[in-house]
Amino acid sequence: MVKEKTHVNVVIIGHVDSGKSTTTGHLVYKCGGIDQRRLEKFEKAAAQTREHALLAYTLGVKQIIVCVNKMDLTEPPYSQKRFDEVVRGVSGFLKKIGYDPTTVPFVPISGWTGENMITATQRMPWFQGWKARRREGNTSGRTLLEVLDSIQPPVRTINKPLRLPLQDVYKIGGVGTVPVGKIETGILKPGMTLMFSPAKLTAEVKSIEMHHQGLQTALPGHNVGFNIKNVAVKNLRRGDVAGNAQQDPPSDVHSFEAQVIVLNHPGKIKAGYSPVLDCHTTHVTCRFAELKEKLDRRTGKKLEDHPQLLMSGDAATVKLVPIKPMCVESFFTYPPLGRFAARDLKQTVAVGVIKSVEKDQGSKPPHKAQVCK
Questions:
Q1: Which residues are paired to 157 by β-bridges?
Q2: Residue 300 CA to chain centroid, in angstroms?
Q3: Which of 167, 299, 314, 331 has its CA 20 to 30 A from that of 179?
């Protein structure tokens, strides 16, 4: 029988990248310090991968790559059997979510040893390479770098009105106020008059830069900084949305209707529940004002009118009311501003797409901001 030792606290110190947690955890595991139940709990935690894939699909991610890491730690190392198990399992739940597995490349690698990342693997001779079916034509290769190079750039929407969610706002000496963000739809040009929502401000664009280079026309997908006239930094913030004041300018909303999927909530969601919604660059607490319909998660068909509660795995149409001014759009009109994640309890509890919005009719007319001093 193993002799019981006196309990001693051991402090593991060292550089943040020295491998303290990895070494300690491996030592505890090798010494039998993790029982079977705990291992099963860790295996269940792997369900996060399913949630992340569902979140990606719901939020509009069209192309997905599955990187099977830590192949050096399989039994035996670089095991084809283990790789094939992962491919079968992941392909199954990706198909259930909505992805076509034939369009998803699976790549075995070791991030620790660098195996099959840049150059083709020598330790996995059984791996004949990845394949992916694409609308533009089928692609294939062997390494992680090759599959990254095969990613198709998304189609950007130029012919829609401008929508530019702000990521930050800076005050630069000798220049003035410079908002920064990614153009989601439309174009941005110097001389254009912008409206910011929900700030309710208008301002003229003086100049535009991307990667410290001046631009005369900025297009969707461009991360830009632009100088605006006569606006104080304090009047704009992250989450505000800029649009062309002359063409369907953005507006804050009084409420909006959305289709949501509850991913991981430990209790029951009822009317009045108020998580934080992450939509484009804004983070605003929104109240579930009304649970309108419960839906079949896969087909979208109505199952029940006015359900009393929602639980993990449920899909529903709900009415949401932001508790402070917020600018969002219908997913069908401006997709990047019409999808969101609801967060609570330090995790993503639901994801959704906005079906329709009720503009705030009682908002004050836009005005020019205070002049910077």
A1: 185
A2: 22
A3: 331
- Rounded average pLDDT over 154-164: 87
Structure tokens that stand for 91 in this block: 């392909």
Angle separating helix axes 48-58 and 80-97, nearest 10 degrees: 40
Phi/psi-derived region of residue 158, left when phi > 0, alpha when psi is between -120 and 50, beta in every other case: alpha
Query: Which are the contacts of 345, defined by CB distance < 8 A and separation ≥ 6?
Result: 265, 266
Which whole-number Å values give the CA distances from 363 to 31, 197, 252, 352, in the listed order? 65, 11, 8, 26
**pLDDT tens-digit profile of 282-306?**
999 999 999 999 998 777 889 999 9
Question: CA 155 → CA 16, 77, 111, 216, 333, distances in Å?
Answer: 41, 41, 31, 21, 15
DSSP of 294-325:
EE-TTT--EEEES-S-B-TT-EEEEEEEESS-
SS3 of residue 73 by DSSP: helix
Q: Inform me whether the pLDDT recorded for 21 exceeds 90.
A: no
Cβ neighbours, 10 Å, residue 116:
25
For residues 240 and 198, the answer to whether their CB atoms sit within 8 Å is yes
If residue 259 lies in a helix (H) or strand (E), which one and from where to where? strand 253-262
Distance CA 90, CA 99 (A): 11
Helix (H, G, I), strand (E, B) or coil at 227: strand
Angle 366-370-373 from CA coordinates, rounded to 5°: 160
Radius of gyration of the chain (CA): 25
Whether the CB-CB separation of 132 and 138 falls below 8 Å is answered with yes
CB atoms within 10 A of CB 49: 14
Task: Give Dmax (Cα) for the chain.
Answer: 83
Dihedral sign, Cα of residue 306, residue 311, residue 317, residue 323: positive
Contacts 24+ apart (CB under 8 A), 300-305: 300/259
Q: How do residues 197-214 score in pLDDT, each as one tens digit?
A: 999 999 999 999 998 899
**Cα of 178 vs its chain's centroid, Å:** 25
Quick check: 178 pLDDT over 60? yes
Alpha carbons 173 and 159: distance in angstroms, whole number: 35
Are the C-beta atoms of 156 and 208 separated by less than 8 Å?
no
CA-to-CA distance for 94 and 72, rounded, in angstroms? 25
